[in-house]
Description:
By secondary structure, the protein is α+β, with helices and mostly antiparallel strands. It has one helix at residues 2-28; strands spanning 45-48, 54-57, 62-66, 83-89, 94-99, 108-114, 117-123, 136-137.
Amino acid sequence: MAADQHQRIRRAFMGAALGGAVTFLLASCSGYYPVEVNTVDQLTGVWSDWTGATVEFKDDGTFTAKGLDKEDVVWGCSGFADRQHGTWSPSGTYGEVTFDGVDCEDMKLAFYGSPSSFVACFTRDETEGGCTHEFSREEG
């Protein structure tokens, strides 16, 4: 009888521990939800990634970037200059983006996180969210 009771207690403890682990995993992955970006003021400003590449989105629909010529910052495109220019427009969870003088068709801006704190990344893979570098807005 005592062994049976011990097994029930052990199963209840393991179930609680597993449930906690699942909750932790779900919470830690919550930052990758698509975010709707539909207004220019949500994006204007300077954004940077971990390599030091920066993109300044301007309210006239243009941008100036520095460091996109580094390996894999914008995956699948070639011909970036040290200082790159282009145009952009927000349109939901994926914005339109074009690069002046660069062979880079069908590139999008993807937005992930929460409406108050999100990241932007250049991607061609809209179904998987294939981003190599996430850009976040610089404060100040």
